[in-house]
TrEMBL record:
GO terms for molecular function: acetylpyruvate hydrolase activity; metal ion binding. It holds the Pfam family Rv2993c-like_N. Keywords: Metal-binding. The keyword Metal-binding applies. This is 2-keto-4-pentenoate hydratase/2-oxohepta-3-ene-1,7-dioic acid hydratase in catechol pathway. Residues 79-277 form the Fumarylacetoacetase-like C-terminal domain. Residues 1-20 are annotated as: Disordered. InterPro entries: Fumarylacetoacetase-like_C, Fumarylacetoacetase_C_sf, Rv2993c-like_N. It comes from Aquabacter spiritensis. Gene3D superfamilies: Fumarylacetoacetase-like, C-terminal domain. Residues 27-74 form the Rv2993c-like N-terminal domain.
Amino acid sequence: MTRDHAHDHAQNHPHSYDHAQDRAAQWVRFSHGGETGIGRLSGDTIAVHSGCMFAGARDTGERLALGAVALEPPCRPGKIIALWNNFHGLAAKLGVAEPAEPLYLLKAPSTAAAPGATVRRPPAYSGRTVYEGELGIVIGRTCTNIAEDAAGAYIFGYTIVNDITASDILNKDPTFPQWARAKGFDAYGPFGPGIAPAAPPDGAHVRTILNGAERQNYPLGDMIFPPHRLVALLSRDMTLHPGDLIACGTSLGVGVMKEPVNEIEVSIEGIGTLRNIFVQ
């Protein structure tokens, strides 16, 4: 059985949830009692909902303690779009030109992993793996070729992504940069813990902690293509559907996870902290 309709039938219901109802609560998916459900998390309490997360979800009246459930990825993306070179600071450090349009790849939906999940390097790969703390955008309504000033109506909310990358694969073959493979291993895209309806506040930073040491602390305001512009531009290339996830790209401080067991925390003000373990 399942109470999870966060993605199913969303395209048949084009109107997004009324975010004004509770801008502090975040949408989550969870497992409890052998079922998967959706709800709104406020503090340590989940208000369980029925129906589709993206259209007409209704409060059932049931309440669950956060500690009594296992959080799942907060939605099930049909596609994951991952940006490269989307921050002024990183472009300057790398000595590359800032792009005139978004540079991106598609990350396999099977890379999605839950907050708190243990991510394991595949046995067939023995090379380096890097963390990349990022802001994520979740689409709430189907959109194609929209204007930037309309994009906010199509954004369901914001989350945190760790766009994990098998860096030694990327340029292994000199004839073809292997972006999709390098970022496509199972569970190499944890995100969560929830979906916040409101954008991070002005001045928000992405902060990544690896094994207790701060490795990234960069401002979201440094983004070359900020969220509304990014969604509009991507919608010109492909139709975006409810549940699609856009990883906005990372900035300074990306590094290799060197220990056999690595603890990674990525935090963004207004959203929370995504915690995972990486084992190799």
